[in-house]
Amino acid sequence: MTTTPRAAEPATLLLEDLHGSLADPLLDQMTFLNEVTLRYPDAVSFAPGRPYEGLFEPADVTTALNTYLTHLREEEGLGPAAVRERIFQYGRTKGFINTLVAGQLQADEGITADPEAIVVTAGAQEAMLLVLRALCADPRDVLLVASPCYVGITGAARLLGVTVVPVPEAPGGGLDPEAVAAAVREQRAAGRRPRACYLVPDFANPSGASLPVPARRRLLDVAAETGLLLIEDDPYGFFALDGRSRPTLKALDTAHRVIHIGSYAKTCFPGARIGYVIADQRVAGPAGTTLLADELAKLKSMTTVNTSALGQAVVGGMLLQAGLRLRDANKAVGAFYADNLRTLLAELAAAFPPAGRERHGVCWNLPEGGFFVVVSVPFTADEPAMERCAREHGVLWTPMAGFYPAGGGERLLRLSCSYLTPDRIRDGVRRLAAFAAAEADREPAPAN
Hints:
There is one protein chain. The chain has 2 domains: 143 residues, Aspartate Aminotransferase, domain 1, CATH 3.90.1150.10; 269 residues, 3-Layer(aba) Sandwich (Aspartate Aminotransferase, domain 2), CATH 3.40.640. The mean pLDDT is 93. By secondary structure, the chain is of the alpha/beta class.
């Protein structure tokens, strides 16, 4: 007699038995924003800080790849077998377009970087993970961050168990160097070790704030005086309203206190996921000294192994087509984003004129470039409110509270203007104004 085997019960894991970061609401934020955009496909979405798809053409990928293949044959002198290996195999952990990246940074930013001090990464997000993992080795180690702060860095810190200490941005002026110095002193007095400070000096995500050049120089002085490293993230530097460049911290860095993270997502090809980190600090060990980039490469070899060869080849071709001068090549793109930002600011001013602004309880900052505007509203700008806004008024935005590591921002929302056309921006602001008026009636602003 045969018996039918009883079906085994599906395995069920307890969340409490998994890493504690998985229960953190912060890790749900990006997923939620992506999913809510899909749930309301007809809504005007000010939520994603992604490039506008209309600026890209699929045929450009093939053209760029062919440009890079020609470069391999004619400039590097590689034969068919070597070209095939470069494109199809795993490749060097540090990357193989490092010389092109270094040339572009020299041409566009005045940054002099040894290609061996550069690690080409799977987007800027991997660079953040590698840097934090390398720098933070002790439970006492803490990371200072500008607050509000991009959730990618705070999320990476939580995955790695690194404590984040927020340093508030100065009103309208980015991170205050003296506040950074005070935070270092305070943390050391408490027995902790401030290892680095993360910031986006140009048109930061989410605040849109920029650090004035004198403050950049002073921050470098503070870093030298306190022994702090600065982690500079620079995704938006090309997109100033006035079209003028501002010196990066790395370009001003003479003491190797800056670890510079960049990405080609906004300037070349977001889907390629090509980022980089300049880590030119010396690391002393029993066997001598190495570059921090070499140590990051060791970590990368145990995570992503290497960065997509095909993605590097396409981005390398785009750099070559631009003559390694991406700032010039991106002038039309920069003009598009600048026009969008001007349109957004003008439409907010029209929808909430000064005479009625106090009555509506709405105000906003005035960024000098980039993708983001922060709006103060008279209601709780949380995820349920955003869903209600999408459902009833057909417009999406991003709650700001998740960008504040120590809490705050409950009545602030972020508008991103990068992913829309000017007409959609105008329509979206009109819808947002109708929602703000409805919410103000539901939830009066708190008394002063």
